[in-house]
């Protein structure tokens, strides 16, 4: 059962970036459809997904990050490796063998990279185990 209050809080987090809402909604509903045990947790600086441990987060950056214009949302995936993708803004090795991959989430969900759900599934397996 989708937690509507959790989704409302996540959408409220992006209120100052309404252009991000279509992709944020699509990502959250896609993740919850695939992994019903996922909990959406809205904090001061991000909207995190965990099952039971955090495996990714959505943030609303400023207009530009590292000299690149950013759309409404950044997706950070916690993986054992840096990704190589056009939408990758940067990969940071937060801990040995654990990389935070910051991806620009396209404003239009139709433009999501084909590998997005594979990467998200990999992050979930890496951080939470299971399928």
Distance between the termini: 19 Å
Helix content: 25-40%
Care to count the β-strands?
8
Element string (H = helix, E = strand): HHEEEEEEEEH
**Could you name the ranges where pLDDT drops below 50 across 5 or more consecutive residues?**
none
Mean pLDDT: 91
The DSSP helix count reads: 3
- Largest sheet: spatial strand order: 1-2-3-6-8-7
Q: Which of globular, elongated, flat, extended, rod-shaped describes the shape?
A: globular
Give Rg in angstroms. 14 Å
Taking the sheet with the most strands, its summary is: 6 strands, antiparallel
Residue share in β-strands: 25-35%
- SS content category: alpha+beta
What layout of secondary structure does this protein have?
Elements: H1 4-13, H2 21-34, E1 39-42, E2 47-50, E3 54-59, E4 64-65, E5 68-69, E6 73-79, E7 88-95, E8 98-105, H3 116-128
Antiparallel strand pairs: 1-2, 2-3, 3-6, 4-5, 6-8, 7-8
């Amino acid at each position: 059962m989708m937690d509507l209050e959790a989704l409302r809080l996540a959408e409220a987090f992006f209120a100052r970036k309404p252009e991000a809402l279509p992709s944020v909604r699509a990502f959250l509903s896609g993740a919850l459809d695939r992994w019903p045990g996922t909990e959406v947790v809205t904090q001061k600086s991000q909207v995190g997904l965990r099952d039971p441990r955090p495996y990714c987060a959505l943030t609303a950056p400023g207009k530009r990050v590292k000299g690149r214009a950013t759309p409404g949302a950044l997706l950070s995936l916690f993986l054992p490796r840096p990704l190589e993708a056009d939408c990758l803004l940067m990969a940071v090795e937060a801990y040995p063998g654990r990389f935070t991959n910051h991806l620009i989430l396209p404003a239009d969900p139709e433009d999501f990279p084909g590998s997005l759900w594979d990467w998200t599934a990999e992050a979930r397996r890496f951080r939470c185990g299971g399928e």
